[in-house]
Predict the 3D structure of the following.
Amino acid sequence: MKTMLCKQYGPPESLVLEDVEPPKAGPGQVVVEVKACGVNFPDVLIIENKYQFKPQLPFAPGGEISGVVKELGEGVTNVAVGDRVLASTGFGGFAEEIAIPAAAAVPIPDSMDFPTAAAFLMTYGTSYYALKDRAQIRPGENLVVLGAAGGVGLAAVELGKALGARVIAAASSEEKLAVCREHGADATIDYSKDGLKDEMKELTGGKGADVVYDPVGGEYSEAAIRATAWEGRFLVIGFAAGDIPRIPLNLTLLKSCQIVGVFWGAFVGREPERNRQNTRELFELFEKGTIKPYVSSSYPLAEAASALHEIGGRRAKGKIVVVP
Ligand SMILES: NC(=O)c1ccc[n+]([C@@H]2O[C@H](COP(=O)([O-])OP(=O)(O)OC[C@H]3O[C@@H](n4cnc5c(N)ncnc54)[C@H](OP(=O)(O)O)[C@@H]3O)[C@@H](O)[C@H]2O)c1
């Protein structure tokens, strides 16, 4: 089978397409024929050895997949051959087949196609856990989403609306903000032109944001905390801009506000039942049409490097998938 391997750390063009032996299902595992693999910012980091999780070389990147169960290992009873499933894999998804723990295989709704399924769990899982569980967002609250046209950002825009918030989307171009409006944003800020802090204050009647969702970091974080409301919650999602900000703690005291860490991958491992419940709720929102995952482009396996460049080059809108 074909797989796109990282044999030495480096930029996307250092990946190599190879033919390798197909995987076998070990005890408690299943082999999935991969139909699509979602591409996420961590894939850009993992091949450069800049991610918190470091697989042994050589490995295929690709942290979430959808596909069809092809083979069952000993003792597997939760899925059957032929089932349509999705899974968070961490890595290994840039391949025609992958062996995963059977417990990680989640049956997908009949109405969900494979590219959507591969683009679903990490972004919506993260944003739902962040807004519902960590921020405990309430109807009518003002939510500001930074990097709002990106993978997790656009999911936060849709889920913010689904949870009853007024959503202000912030991003770096008019084209990106148009996508956010199509996905439900009530107001927008182009932070490449306008001052983020002043615009946030202006759009919230001087009060500031009740909840800030920040997957970007860099210079925007402090500006957004300075425009966070009394008893607001600032969600730390990621640092796509590269810099991890250092925040003066007096800002939190003055506003009685909270800086709240969000690590969805660890939540999945530590609290599997709560995560399964969240996934069920997300599938219900999908089936009702309340959330509409946006897959903006699709690349064949041989062009996986271009998919990674789209994300690393700040050009991606919504989600990108690789289709083996
Ligand atoms: N905490 C968790 O559990 C969790 C889970 C999943 C992902 N994450 C993290 O969330 C972040 C976003 O992931 P994603 O998959 O949504 O990525 P993405 O689709 O590429 O979105 C990231 C956004 O960041 C903004 N950005 C600002 N400077 C950038 C730069 N130099 N390069 C690239 N993007 C830049 C871009 O929006 P503008 O151009 O509009 O500024 C972009 O749309 C990553 O740091 C990822 O590791 C965290």
Q: What stands out?
A: The longest helix spans residues 272-288.
